[in-house]
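Lab notebook: predicted structure, single chain.

Context: the supervisor wants predicted structures on file for every construct in the current expression panel, including those that have not yet been purified. This is the next one on the list. No modifications to the sequence; it matches the entry in the shared construct table.
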Amino acid sequence: MRKHTSSRHILSKKTTRRANFRTPRLKSTTSFIFALVLGATLAVGVSVWATTIGNNVSVGGTLTSTGNVSANADLSVTSGARIGADSDPGHITSLADDSFFVEGQAEFDGIVWFDGTLHASSTLLVGAAATFYGNVTIGDAAADTLTVTSNSVTFSNSATATVNTNVLNGFSFATSTASYGLPLLAVGSQSAGRPARVGIATSTPSAMFAVNSFGGLNALVIGSSSASSTFVVDSQARIGIGTSTPGAKLSVDGDGLVLISSQAATATLRIYSSSPATGANGKGGCIEMEDVDGNVFSLVATTTNGPAVWQGAACR
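Prediction complete. Output recorded below exactly as produced.
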């Protein structure tokens, strides 16, 4: 026989069952607008359209925002942060262009690893030491520059600077003043039919080693400029031995013996008044000497196949 229960008794049991729950259950599809107070906890699957957060919010599951999220104070991440879908939650990962963007300054006190390319469209400032274990490329255009403001550059191992082939002025050192227009040192690369060249004060060395005199300075000085052992080539291509101020194409100053010798049985000193441009010897050679009193004498050949004439006059 079926047992009947009064409706009043059933209502009393439902009321008692509801009273045993301290927190109302919210369906996962429920959407509502409310104000969060101190220490509020969101259940899994709850959709919040607008909130006013007084203090802390604890989320037991995943918190998803379809709009913008702003943090007016510090943002602390105790584990990892995920940026972009399918990224590693243990790291901050950028999977798309500008998906991790810092408008102002960013400070990293630990190690930062870049598995891909580090691209700085403006200034990249490194306040401490920087170590690069692979190849480093600086600049991708001819107008790009590398500026080193420190006093020295040190190479711990043997270093080689490589320039492209068939380049006349492949590598050069220049001053910061562009008005001079001359490099301190220019190195040209070697190619087929042209050897490598080094130029000082010239960007177009015409020989394997070329020195361009500039500002009236001597092109080459070996020894002290005031010592008797000086060998000088001045700005007018005059050679001085024992003197820093040669007055002729070849000037020898000081006491000593001028020795002319060769491996052959005889040695010949030829003096011409002009260069034999056609292969024929020039005529009218002259040797000039001066005594201690300032008197000038010369030995000059004036006629073809004739004897040299000693005269008490200068060659010219």
